[in-house]
Design goal:
six-stranded parallel beta sheet, 12 helices, about 350 residues, alpha/beta
């Protein structure tokens, strides 16, 4: 099969021929029809993820058709149209037994723990626990936006963030996750303030329902500006980018008893990020993490997509062929972007 492979962290990736994968007894092989290009892929390529071994094929936001099925899989057959959360759970650990597959103790992630979906085929583990059927009428490109960005944002806003109609919600960073969060929070009846440094990102945030937009590149103190704009601070704030500055601003912009949800990855040389905990103590703030969404939680989200309340298809701003993926991956770390890039291996 053809796949995007990098041999060294931070050095150019290339499309080349590699062996086809085989399904594990509990797994499947999916023929990839579309895969999203995520900032997490860039982090992996840069060497920020200790689970990656070289050489490596990135990619974890995927949709396609089942090509081969392991001997112990009961719920899926070749030809089934599927997507999958980026966290593939084991289905048997205590966390999975509690329904918390998104923090599975033995999780695997395509594109990190093993070769991913920047390829014509990808192997996925524990298919009966992790695969999600793509609804009739949904394109592969739209389905590819669900498994990481949209589902992650949905859980961060609705389940972890407990958004309520009429609340002020701040979204720091309007890439794929952030724009998804803007759309979901606005559809929930919240008043959303979108924060970014890129005019294109803020314009998309307006289109997706943001009531206010704030250009952080022209704002000396983002947290203070947000507190003033919302009449005391956001009820809920999400760091959808993942940086010391956006994390601190997200916590700092909250009103009393507000809720911060950390969604974006926070890599740093020593593995720590400064957080204004004195403010969290004084105002009784909640500091929460959000890590994807389990497959069993997808039906509620998919119902809203089917009804037209949520439109993840609007997030897809460009599609590229597999041959262009190495250049697009390298560009993610140097240029601000917005929306979702989808790679189509068969084009």
């Amino acid at each position: 099969m053809r796949a995007v492979v990098f041999e060294q962290f931070g050095e150019p990736a290339a499309v080349r021929e590699v062996p086809d994968p085989e399904p594990a007894g509990h797994g499947v092989v999916v023929r990839v029809e579309a895969t999203g290009l995520c900032r997490s892929d860039w982090h992996g390529w840069m060497g920020h993820d200790p689970d990656i071994t070289l050489p490596h094929v990135p990619g974890h936001e995927l949709a396609g058709a089942v090509e081969a099925v392991g001997a112990r899989v009961t719920g899926w057959r070749p030809g089934d149209r599927v997507t999958v959360p980026f966290v593939c759970a084991c289905g048997s650990c205590p966390s999975c037994a509690a329904g918390d597959q998104q923090v599975c103790e033995r999780q695997t992630q395509p594109g990190f723990h093993h070769w991913g979906s920047f390829a014509q085929y990808v192997a996925l583990d524990h298919a009966d626990v992790n695969l999600v059927a793509i609804p009739d009428g949904m394109t592969y490109a739209t389905a590819a936006t669900l498994g990481c960005r949209f589902a992650t944002a949905f859980r961060a806003v609705v389940q972890q963030g407990r958004v309520a109609a009429g609340e002020w919600v701040a979204v720091h960073g309007c890439g794929g996750v952030g724009l998804s969060a803007v759309m979901i929070a606005a559809a929930s009846g919240a008043r959303v303030v979108a924060v970014d440094v890129a005019p294109q990102a803020l314009e998309l945030a307006r289109e997706f329902g943001a009531a206010q937009c704030l250009d952080a590149s022209r704002t000396p103190d983002t947290a203070q500006a947000l507190r003033e704009l919302t009449g005391g601070g956001a009820h809920l704030s999400l760091d959808a980018l993942g940086s010391p500055a956006t994390c601190a601003a997200s916590v700092g912009c909250l009103r009393r008893r507000g809720r911060h949800v950390q969604v974006g990855l926070l890599p740093s040389p020593d593995g720590t990020t400064p957080v204004p905990l004195a403010r969290a103590t004084a105002l009784e703030l909640e500091l929460l993490g959000s890590h994807g969404m389990a497959a069993h939680a997808y039906p509620g989200m998919l119902e809203l997509v089917a009804s037209g309340v949520l439109r993840p298809d609007r997030l897809v701003t460009r599609t590229i062929p597999l041959d262009a993926a190495p250049q697009a991956l390298a560009a993610m770390g140097t240029a601000p972007g917005a929306g979702v890039t989808v790679v189509e291996p068969w084009r």
